[in-house]
């Protein structure tokens, strides 16, 4: 089998597929308050295009898929998309990242269709603060979604917490306590400069050493763990005696580019080899032309930089490439 390898020897076996750029929330780190102009429906990849694309990609070693958005559960055919991907024997793992507003209603059908596990965005455990960060989200719906995911067996359940200075950094201990009685992986993620012009994003940035300082202040003893399926870039730990775990994902201060095995497909059919840089290839016209399509995919991989240099942006230093013009909701994370 010909594997998708870049010039630094990184083998790509994992893809994140954005199935929509639309979202029912306006999270402060993901989308401007006024929203964005969404793609017209005809510009978005269809279920058949997504499945056809993956039927080819598995022949080159792709075996893990994460469905993203926007908010993927807004797709009326999301269950059929999962079912189509689940019917491809080479795909070993199908996960989804969601804000969970509709998860309680759709979890059972998604599980039956072949969904393996879920990542859920949850940036506050206080209803009013959660509503402010998401600009309209309802915390109880997320909690109901988590409960339903547990009931139907979508494990491991991972909760994504973007750490925002001055907005949720006083809740770190609350999130850590959340792992004590629930078999859940809380993942603290650094605030990233994607979709933010200038340097204003740095006012909200906190390094993830803050998590370990909170553990020490609370008297929590913790130890590293490495047995979480699909842990990706997360460094995971367990408070001694806890059922669940917590992890840290630090794309800015300590990038994990040397082990990056991910490709991204945007909702409008562009392949991206790096989340941060602006280079992307339009593969949609060639979904049914395997040779040309794979030439473009390999070209994207060949052009993938060694790292994204977000740390240089943190220090206001010059970067070697141009950052993406897309907001996070237009890429899929």
UniProtKB/TrEMBL annotation:
Give a single Pfam family match: Radical_SAM
Q: Which species is this UniProt entry from?
A: Listeria marthii FSL S4-120
Query: Which reactions fall under this protein's catalytic activity?
Result: GTP + AH2 + S-adenosyl-L-methionine = (8S)-3',8-cyclo-7,8-dihydroguanosine 5'-triphosphate + 5'-deoxyadenosine + L-methionine + A + H(+)
Listed binding positions for [4Fe-4S] cluster 2 are 257, 260, 274
Name of encoding gene: moaA
Give the organism's phylogenetic lineage. Answer: Bacteria, Bacillati, Bacillota, Bacilli, Bacillales
Cofactor binding, note field? Binds 2 [4Fe-4S] clusters. Binds 1 [4Fe-4S] cluster coordinated with 3 cysteines and an exchangeable S-adenosyl-L-methionine and 1 [4Fe-4S] cluster coordinated with 3 cysteines and the GTP-derived substrate.
Task: State the name under which the record lists this protein.
Answer: GTP 3',8-cyclase
- Can you give the residue ranges of the Radical SAM core domain? 7-221
State the family named in the UniProt similarity comment for this chain: Belongs to the radical SAM superfamily. MoaA family.
Cofactor(s) of this protein: [4Fe-4S] cluster
Does the record's keyword annotation contain Metal-binding?
yes
Q: Which residues bind [4Fe-4S] cluster 1?
A: 23, 27, 30
**Which pathway?**
Cofactor biosynthesis; molybdopterin biosynthesis
């Amino acid at each position: 089998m010909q594997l998708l390898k870049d010039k630094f020897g990184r083998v790509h076996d994992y893809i994140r597929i954005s199935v929509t750029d639309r979202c029912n929330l306006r999270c402060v780190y993901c989308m401007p308050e006024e929203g964005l102009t969404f793609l017209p429906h005809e510009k978005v990849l269809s279920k058949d295009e997504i499945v056809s694309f993956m039927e080819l990609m598995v022949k080159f070693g792709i075996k893990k898929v994460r469905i993203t958005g926007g908010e993927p559960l807004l797709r009326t055919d999301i269950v059929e998309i999962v079912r189509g991907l689940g019917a491809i024997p080479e795909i070993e793992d199908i996960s989804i990242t969601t804000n969970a507003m509709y998860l309680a209603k759709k979890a059972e059908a998604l599980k039956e269709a072949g969904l393996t596990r879920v990542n859920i965005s949850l940036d506050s455990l206080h209803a009013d603060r959660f509503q402010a960060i998401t600009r309209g989200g309802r915390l109880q719906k997320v909690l109901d979604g988590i409960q339903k995911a547990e009931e139907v067996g979508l494990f491991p359940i991972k909760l994504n917490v973007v750490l925002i200075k001055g907005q949720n950094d006083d809740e770190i201990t609350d999130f850590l306590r959340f792992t004590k009685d629930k078999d859940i992986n809380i993942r603290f993620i650094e605030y990233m400069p994607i979709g933010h012009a200038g340097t204003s994003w740095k006012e909200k940035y906190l390094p993830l050493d803050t998590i370990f300082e909170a553990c020490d202040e609370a008297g929590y003893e913790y130890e590293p763990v490495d047995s979480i399926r699909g842990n990706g870039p997360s460094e995971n730990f367990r408070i001694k005696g806890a059922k669940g775990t917590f992890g840290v994902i630090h794309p800015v201060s300590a990038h994990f580019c040397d082990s990056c095995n991910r490709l991204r497909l945007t909702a409008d059919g562009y392949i991206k080899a790096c989340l941060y840089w602006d280079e992307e290839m339009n593969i949609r016209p060639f979904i049914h032309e395997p040779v040309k399509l794979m030439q473009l995919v390999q070209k994207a991989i060949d052009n993938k930089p060694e790292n994204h240099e977000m740390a240089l942006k943190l220090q206001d230093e010059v970067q070697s490439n141009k950052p993406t013009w897309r907001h996070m909701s237009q890429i899929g994370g």
